[in-house]
Amino acid sequence: MANPYANPWRPNFEARALAMWLAVALVAWSTADLWALHGAAFRWVATLALGFALIWLPGTLRLASLQEFLRGYSLEFVAPTAFADQMPQWTGNLWMGKGYDWTAQHTQLALDLMREGPERFAPRDPQRMGATWIHGLGGRDQNLCVPLEHIEGHLLIVGTTGAGKTRAFDLLVTQAALRGEAVVIIDPKGDQDLRRTAERACVLAGAPRRFVYFHPAFPDESVRIDPLHSFNRPTELASRVAALIPSETGNDPFKAFGQMALSHVVQGLLAVNERPSLVTLRHYLEGGAGALVERVLLRYFAEHRPQWVSETDTQMARARDGSARVKVLLRYYRERVAPETPSTVIEGLAGMYEHEAVHFSKMIASLMPILNMLTSGDLGGLLSPDAVTPADARRFTSMSEVIEAREVLYVGLDSLSDTMVGSAIGSVLIADLAAVAGGRYNHQLRPHPVNVFIDEAAEVVNDPFIQLLNKGRGAGLRLAIATQTFADFSARTGSEAKARQVLGNINNVVALRVLDAETQKYVAESLPMARVTSIMRAHGSTSDSTNPLLYTGNTGERITEEEVELFPPALLGQLPNFEYVARWAGGRVSKGRLPILGAPRGAVGTAPFEPLPRLSVQEAPTGLSLPGDHVSAPDLVATTESAPPVAAAGAAP
Predict the structure, then answer these.
(1) Fold category of 77-223+395-530+565-646 in CATH
(2) pLDDT 10s digits, 239-298
(3) Which of 349, 401, 217, 394 minimizes the C-alpha distance to 386?
């Protein structure tokens, strides 16, 4: 059986044969009447030569078209309103731009082309970033759709600065909002483009009031969010705040002590029917818990021993300050109340209150900076609205309210201005989101989908974040997280093993241009292996020393197979902007390119939007309950015109 291997990057011998037979046909036909011989014979020769030329035509066109696609594609711009009009065609699917499924055949083509030198067919343009020939290996691309059920296993987007992570979020956020699903965006940088994307998506969905904005740098425009609003058990709130304490191991005694102190204060506040907040937690830990202990004791005595006033009136009259009153009340509790109706809340608060002050302050030294960051300045009113500004006119909301109302929440952390505070805010909101997910998992049979987008995700990694990845799917959460390198998670978590634990819960990976070698290796390892064919050439010669004239020589070729990465890791560093390689749940691998929602910067005119091919499902997206879901504006169009090389290499508009 002949080996089917053929190198498509060889010279186009078919074109040479085609040209030769066409030349024969032309000469024979044009000179048929110039010869003394019968002219019909020459015309038959011309006809026969033309037939041979037609035989070589398909091969010529196939090689020519394959090599022509190596020049790549220009950027594609899609009008947002036209994009919204296409959404009903993608029900049950996520549209990821144009592309094709990458197979071992494309790996073979890539390796053969790298051996031949891609510059022969697609000379590198210094004005364009990346190797355009990579996407051209698939020929003409098509719409690339992924079932939403696959995205429930979460999505990782990795790429260097400017590769297109924000454009990917643009596409995903817009589709989620148009489907009528809840959206939570956590953006450490506070990217204004991403904010406008979320706001525009709500307008396209016909419900601009769905957009909710939070940003510590713009407190007047921001809503107020209580990150301690949702909880199933009081201990959750203590764990939520304690998770922000930096710790190299999970058994840090300072972290455990801080969590215990927080738990006592939280349970004390709940005992007097007061909702815990970051401000009140800081107040009772920093200023002393004496006032809280007194309030809890008075409330408990009123419920379980109404005669306490008459039994302690003499001692209380002698107490000159709050500290003395607390001591009287604690002594009364231990002598008269505890033997009959003990309270673990009071005993825990009492132990904390009576703890040696200097030692207590040392044990919570790692906790207090966290609370101080989250309650200082305008953050006090933004994150603890009930405790600081109960009469504030700004909207007061929570993660649970946003999710149940299926709103689109954009959270800018302003990490560029203050990295530590931004990271703390993001982490505590992630913990709140984990608590909401736990409630949905426990009490809702089929919770509606919630799309969570986290840019620069390594800045907000904590234990609740890992729990969201582990168990968020059962609560209807789909996480899409973006980062630049694998090392970002390793540095944040303190070890490569911990980083792999985080990323091991993600079933889908979209890799844009990646320059870090370790990240390239991580992406390549997640793809299946491919078997490729190569030709090994050998030649040799021998001669007899006793008879120099006796000379022999040999030459030969041997076809070999070897196992290589399905997508060569080095090519990840050569991808142009907005092009990606994706591994989807179940093992499917795709090569795609992302469009830009909007018009090209400085464009004078645009070409009419060409509707995308319709899928089999035609009905409107499920989950949309508002009338006028899509706003149509025929005057807004999209363009796929050839952009100049500079625009293709530049940042997205």
Answers:
(1) Rossmann fold (3.40.50)
(2) 888 888 876 555 678 888 989 999 999 999 999 999 899 999 999 998 888 999 999 999
(3) 394
